Each structure stands twice: as structure tokens, then as C-alpha cells.
Model the fold of this input.
Amino acid sequence: MKKIADIALVGLAVMGENLVLNMESKGYTVAVYNRTLSKVDAFLDGRAKGKNIIGVHSLEKLVESVSRPRKIMLMIKAGKAVDSFIEQIIKYLEPGDIIIDGGNSHYSDTIRRTEYMESKEMLYIGTGISGGEQGALYGPSIMPGGSQKAWPQLKPILQSIAAKLEDGTPCCDWIGADGAGHFVKMVHNGIEYGDMQLIAETYQLMRGLLGMSADEMQAVFEEWNRGELESYLIEITGHIFQFKDKDGLPLVDKILDRAGQKGTGKWTAMVALEIGIPLTLIGEAVFARCLSALKQERVNAAKLLSGPKPSFKGNKNDFINDLKQALYACKIISYTQGYTLMRAASEEYNWHLDYGNIAMIWGNGCIIRSAFLQKIKDAYAHNPQLTNLLLDPFFKDRVLSSQAAWRRVTTAALTEGIAVPTFASALCYFDGYRSANLPANLIQAQRDYFGAHTYERTDRQEGEFFHTDWTGKGGKTSASVYTL
Done:
């Protein structure tokens, strides 16, 4: 066993352990440390036994165990714990050493930490890692950003442990400066929220409107996974429907309808509000989880608030086909909004994101991996300056061809009293985006009426602002700042 490690990892929870084993299996020697020292010993005596893994009981020993420039990867809880760790270990590091944060840190923290480390002549990487514990062990999708000088040092290691596309291309490449990697991972998670809620609403329509059994739904999802909807989430949903409890009944029917969340989807929606991007579908997916958390309130409300009792009278197979098309159209909207947010952030922070490359990084190993992503890669290869996926010929044609089915499904759900917030919000986004005129002119008139916020006119040059004394008592003074 080598006495000096190629890289060190701090944080031996499941993800950390699996990444260490992944690195070791690719020929790297890894030094490991955990704040609870017994975890280091248990790991060395268990899964790491006999492998090229060095366990240490102090940060000083950890740094001494790694070759220069030192590469220290953190798999610890995001937030203050990361800042605290940096302050603890930085006194042992030298110029050129690298800290890699592999947790779900907020991108703004990564921007700040990159600047701080570089001010100390050290390097910092904030990298998104997706794929769960199995991905960490066998090959995740990895999204590194931060100090670009560190990338040549880390590229061989990270690309070797990443998932691979069919042609062998690693699902890991440089994303951009400072917080770019964690931002793209945040958007990935937001899209993941959207995909999961869309599938959940599809399930609700199958179960609540069509009266389908778990076995029937499993068969449909298995069929869908062989076509254009092929994806990890569609695949595992079929497996979930198939799984039986000890009594032979579907386990899914016994799981409480209260969804948890760790915050990255919420971050995505909040950043969209800050930047001014209509991320409606992902926002509704986050709110749907919040509504699900009000379980007892919903149980009480169900006794007092009435609505239609779902009753389906059409052709079941035709509706299932409509569902398939509607789900695909909504998926297009979800990714469209996510990519629009990345584009706005790239311009805001001067990241120069490669959108087609990001689609391929997500092509395997991560939770949102799907055949769909190749179409996004193709769209940006055709037009690198594409402002909205709906303007790409493939996505435009696909949404338009699905539009009638999408409307039928959404109309049926609303008529029958079944909540489909992401289906409906996606359709409203589509209808709003394709509208040359929206009723925002009335909103501007209202703003000018009560706050003298001014407005532009359709018969005058854009950028020229006007104020009207709507009551005859307001005078000619307008607000000094015009805000859209």
C-alpha cells in the first residue's frame, strides 16, 4: 500500500465512503478523515479493508498524507460546517493546494469561498455530484466549477470516477468559474423536482381518474421507458409500482403522501425570482411538496370542502396515450425553464456555460438522466445562441404536435377536481410565451395610477416613459425609479 495518497476525502457518510471506494477502484490511493474518528476505524476494518485507503485521526495528519499539490475533498453538510472546516484545515495547507466541496452548497457560498481561497493563493472547487449512493460508487454525474487552475489537477481523477456515455465520454467536465458547478447542480435538482412532480401527477390521473391498479401502471411505465420517455425516473417508477409489501399488496399504496425536501429545489425557485426568470413548473413542484406536508390539514379539509368526484367516461387507452404526450410536453417546458435560468445566470456571472455539454454531463449517472437530453445537446449544437428550447425546430414541433393531448389531459384533470399544478403551470407558460400580447399593459396602468411608476406606449419609441394624472389630482410628478 502507498504511504502517500493521491487525494483525501473528509466525511465518511454513505456518499463519502462510496466515492472513496470508487476512486480506489480506479487506481488512486485515498486518505480519509471523519470528525467522528470511530467512523474512520470502522471503515478501514470494513469496506476499505485491504484497499489503498489511508485512515488518519487528525487534519494535520490528513494533509501530511496527501501528495502536493494537495487535493482535499469535502463530503460534509453544506453551510457553516464547510466554512468551519476551511478555517480548521487552511493553516496546514500551502499555496496551490486545492479544496473540493462535493456537497450541495449554495452557489453564492461557493463564489465567496473561491474568492477567499484564491486570496490565500490556494484553489477551490465547488462540484455538484448527482447519482445518489449507487452513482457515487459506480459512476456519478459530476459538475465542477471554481478555480480553473485546479481543473488540470483534478480532471483525471474526477473523469475517471464519473459515469460514462455509450461512447465512453465521461459525464464530468469543467462547468465554469466560482459557483458555476454548484449552480448547474442546483438547476439539475430543480428539474428533478419538476420531473418527479410531473410523474406523480401522471400517477394521480392513472389512479384517481382511470382507476388503474399498480400492476397496470407498472406495465405502462415499462412501455414508456422503451420509447421517447426513457429515463431513470420513469424506470424506477415502474419498479416502485411492481414492488409488493409482505402481504402481497403494492408498497406504494401504504406510503404516507407527505413528501420531504432538502432545499435545492426551493433554491432554484428563489434564484429564478431574484433573476427574474419564469420558473413556474419547478416552483409549482416545490409548492406541491409544501402542500403535501400539510397532511393533517388536508385530512381535515377533505371533510369540509367538496368538489367533483372523478368519473372517467372516455376511452382509457386514448387517454393514456394523451397522458404520454402531455408528460413529454411538460418535460420540455421543465427543461426549457431550467435552461433559461442557467442562461440568465451565465450572463449575470460571466460563466460562459456550455449548454449542450451540460446536457451530456447529465446524460448518465444522475437522477434526471434520460434519452431526452440528447435532443437538448442537438439543439445547442444546431444553435449555440438558442434563447429558449421552444424555439428549436425539434422541440417546437414536438410541443405543437402534443398540444391537443396536453390540453385534453389538463382540462380533464381540472374538470374532475384532480390537482395537476405542474401540468397546468407548464401549459400556462407555453400559452404565455407564445402570446405577442399579454395583459401586463393593464398592470402598468394600475402601477402608474397608484404609484406613478410610469409606462411605455405602443405608439412611441421603446425606452420612453410616461405618467398620467389618472384622477386629475395627482400632478405630473412620477416615481424616480422605473422597475419592470
Remarks:
- The chain has a mean pLDDT of 94.
- Residues 106 and 199 are 27 Å apart (CA to CA).
